[in-house]
């Protein structure tokens, strides 16, 4: 019996060497982490979870939470991580759509989530930020000799929900083969080895923190400092003991605001990686000036894992996302005709390779619509490939805001605002924000004589939308600009409010 991804993780695990270092706390060796993953896998099996069943997990970041991910791989369950910022209303959708057999939440959430879970036929267990909880209680008495489920490259390892451009969020189905091939490629391209120590300050419910950071560390037998969240001072203080950092652009913007960041602080660091949102060229340039390190920018998506990366050796060019990864084909096509465009011409970025997902969970039509007839995934990102082969992202054809590395789907926010009494309509846009890259902003048209203000709208959204999706500003307007077809011209609004969050 072989388990495609976990066998590779096990083979790379350097026994008694450290895997997870909790800052100021305990060290988990590989042996300890793998032992506990076996016990949790056993406990999950005893709860009746079978290969292919979904296990939804909305828990704070901890070593045990990462070990739970490994446990799911080992028992062939499909791991479904959920942002801790999601409200109960959002959770209800994910649980209803994915139909997990087991939902793991923090003890404080148990009662509230149990009602939702029960309605969808799922059981609930708990895991707290300190690693305690009912799931770990069950795992404690399980034997160590867990037999891993057999999983082929095509079997599902995880479902990650991604903001949909039409309708609700879609579950991207990632296979063992997708995850193993991409992490192996990144490990090799970025020369990650057992001597590396990664500063892990990303959340573990998205591709970046879960697959890029964690799988690459595991497949290199390296170790990581697991931080509960990003804090610039804490990260700078750790650098002398670490060798790598992976982050979203907001990390680098905030690091540059720390006076402690200088050449001496980074003397032991080997690599700084950025992704999930565009890194401003000025951040790249300023970071290099201050530290001597050129940030390595790469480009990925939930559906595809990583597609391109600036080179480890060779020019890391500011404002580009680098070259297609080995085994991944990237092309740019004319959005109207589908014809492949020559270098330097801008069009739709399309991707093909072992990294590309299996499809959207229970949405065969949506899946088919996102692929070309020759099997390329249509990214929704607009870009070009220059004559040196570097990919440049110049915009998005999908209506999406990326704030601090989190994606926000404007339609979802507009839908919530439009439901409110006194609202005629709304348009949600992203405009430049000095910290988050883009700031979610709502332009709202009110009915005449309505006393609806910014505070009332934000209050109404509080229990409906995760905090990061809520507009940073709400602007009231008489009407929305429309083109001849009646479509709201968001580009006009983006231009009009471009300086809304400008540094003063
Ligand atoms: C927190 N807030 C945010 C965000 N994060 N608002 C907008 N956008 C955000 N990203 C809210 C908080 O709830 C808080 O609200 C207020 O903003 C200020 O919080 P602050 O303390 O500044 O935030 P933080 O806790 O420091 O978090 C900022 C962060 C964090 C460190 C940038 O958002 C983060 O870790 N982002 C990484 C996301 C990520 O991993 N993306 C990868 C997705 P209030 O105080 O009013 O309650 S994977 C992906 O995109 C693809 C596949 C790829 O290529 O990697
Ligand atoms: P997600 O929905 O989390 O999968 O986000 C994927 C999207 O993030 C991509 O389609 C891009 O629009 C964006 N993205 C990821 N990495 C980069 C990058 N390095 N530069 C610009 N955009 C990026």
TrEMBL record:
Pfam families named among the record's database cross-references: AMP-binding (PF00501), AMP-binding_C (PF13193)
PROSITE patterns linked to this entry: AMP_BINDING (PS00455)
Highest taxon, organism lineage: Bacteria
Top EC category: ligase
SUPFAM superfamilies with a match to the protein in the record: Acetyl-CoA synthetase-like
GO MF terms held by the record: ligase activity
Keywords: Ligase, Metal-binding
AMP-binding enzyme C-terminal domain: residues covered: 412-487
EC numbers, comma separated: 6.2.1.-
Span of domain AMP-dependent synthetase/ligase: 11-361
Family: Belongs to the ATP-dependent AMP-binding enzyme family.
NCBIfam families in the cross-refs: PRK07514.1 (NF005702)
UniProt xrefs under PANTHER family: ACYL-COA SYNTHETASE, ACYL-COA SYNTHETASE FAMILY MEMBER 3
Name of the protein in its database record: Malonyl-CoA/methylmalonyl-CoA synthetase
Organism: Rhizobium mongolense
High-level lineage: Bacteria, Pseudomonadati, Pseudomonadota, Alphaproteobacteria, Hyphomicrobiales
